[in-house]
Amino acid sequence: MRGTRTQGIGAAAAATLLLVLTGCGSESATAPAPPTQGNVLDAAEVLTDQQEQELNALIEDRNRSTDAARVAVLTVENASGPIEDYARIVATEWEVGDDGANNGVLIVADTAERELRVETADGVREQFSDDEAEDVVEDVLEPAFADEEYAQGLTEAVEQIYLYADGQEPPSDPFAWVLPASIVGAMVAFFGIVVAVIVRDSRRRRRLADEEIRAAEEADPDLHLTDEQREAYRKYRYNHRKDDAVTNPALWLPLYIANPALYSGGSSGTTSGSSFNGGGGFTGGGASGSY
């Protein structure tokens, strides 16, 4: 009887070991679908609509001014497994960064486990090192999230990442409480004005593009743009404002179909506002933290 029980326990232990070694029986991390618009997915709902729009406007503006980095943001209520593995899976499946440049950066915040991760691709690590990623996590994200200042933390983190990637140095203490309150208030007010201008301009250009689409469809009932084509036209008109821009969607559409890269968000000397451009090279760079 004892021998039978021992054999049963041994078989169960062996089966458990096999499951661990093969990875079966454990919950595997699954990446959510990327945001349909913009570069921010607030699945944990810690941002207001306006805060999300302003954060995305900031990322798009930085993407159009530099190709040193492409940043995306994800908040979740519960990531499956270690946050390092989860962030790497999401960054890879979302293809954060530009194709061949490996310049993607993904900020992940798990609000249930209170964990944070800045995942960096191999190319961007040449300028934005793992030590600097750790500084962003420890000095910016952790204190902000601990105080439930989610928008402030994410905004400052995005700003610092682009500065590092461009070879610049951010302020030594982004939450410098030792500075006079008037200076801090002036900095916050100035940044708020800049973001507000970006958001207003983006909305105005979007309305203009939508009016052009509506006029073209009224003039030609056979013209039907898909949602993807509409968004591509909006991005095209945002980046092409001079006299040589194509302002008639009916004329733009065949050009876009023939060359989507040229007649969408990008332009000569200007990069697209999107951070999802076929990037890769996520081998475990970055830093993690908790709050």
Automatic annotation (TrEMBL):
Keyword Protein transport (UniProt): no
Residue spans crossing the bilayer: 175-199
Signal peptide segment: 1-29
Domain TPM: 40-162
InterPro entries linked: TPM_dom (IPR007621)
Any single Pfam family the record assigns to this protein: TPM_phosphatase
UniProt biased composition (Gly residues): 276-291
Keyword match Signal: yes
Region (Disordered): 268-291
Keywords, alphabetical: Membrane, Signal, Transmembrane, Transmembrane helix
PANTHER family: UPF0603 PROTEIN YGCG (PTHR30373:SF2)
Name of the molecule in the record: TPM domain-containing protein
